């Protein structure tokens, strides 16, 4: 089991944005509530059962995805990432630089394991 806690975003680009974070895993999608502004506070947890994880931050306008903002992808095997800031960038334009930051915690739990505090 992988648990992903999306904590907050910082310096997301755009004006009057409504960001939402989607966690895509093996055909499943978990998403946060839509927030407002460039520095949103989410503090939401998603639980998935695989070892590949892809997180995307989208801008929401009128409840429809208006623009893909940036993407972060990683591979986790028995490791934990606790309250770390991840750099968001455009995977299709690697020369465009930083497009904001997302603070997350991610960890893998086996049967009977307790999540870290």
Could you explain how this protein is built, in words?
This protein is about 0% helix and about 55% strand. By secondary structure, it is an all-beta fold. It has one domain (about 1-90). The protein has a 4-stranded antiparallel beta sheet, with no helix packed on it. Strands 3-2-5-6 form a 4-stranded antiparallel beta sheet, with no helix packed on it. A hairpin with a 2-residue loop joins strand 2 and strand 3 (about 30). The model is unreliable at about 60-75 (pLDDT under 50). This is MYOF protein. One of its GO terms (biological process) is plasma membrane organization. It holds the Pfam family C2.
Structure summarized in a few sentences:
This protein has 117 residues and is an all-beta fold. It has one domain. Helices cover 0% and strands 56% of the residues.
**Straight-line distance between termini:** 16 Å
Total helical elements: 0
Number of strands: 8
Q: H/E order of the elements?
A: EEEEEEEE
Shape verdict: globular
Rg calculated over all Cα atoms: 14 Å
Spatial strand arrangement across the major sheet: 4-1-8-7
Helix coverage percent of residues?
A: under 10%
> Mean pLDDT, nearest integer?
75
Structural class: mainly beta
Number of spatially distinct domains: 1
Q: Outline the low-pLDDT stretches.
A: 61-73
Largest sheet: 4 strands, antiparallel
Strand content: over 45%
GO biological process, one term: membrane fusion
GO cellular component, one term: membrane
Transmembrane segments: 63-82
Domain C2: 1-96
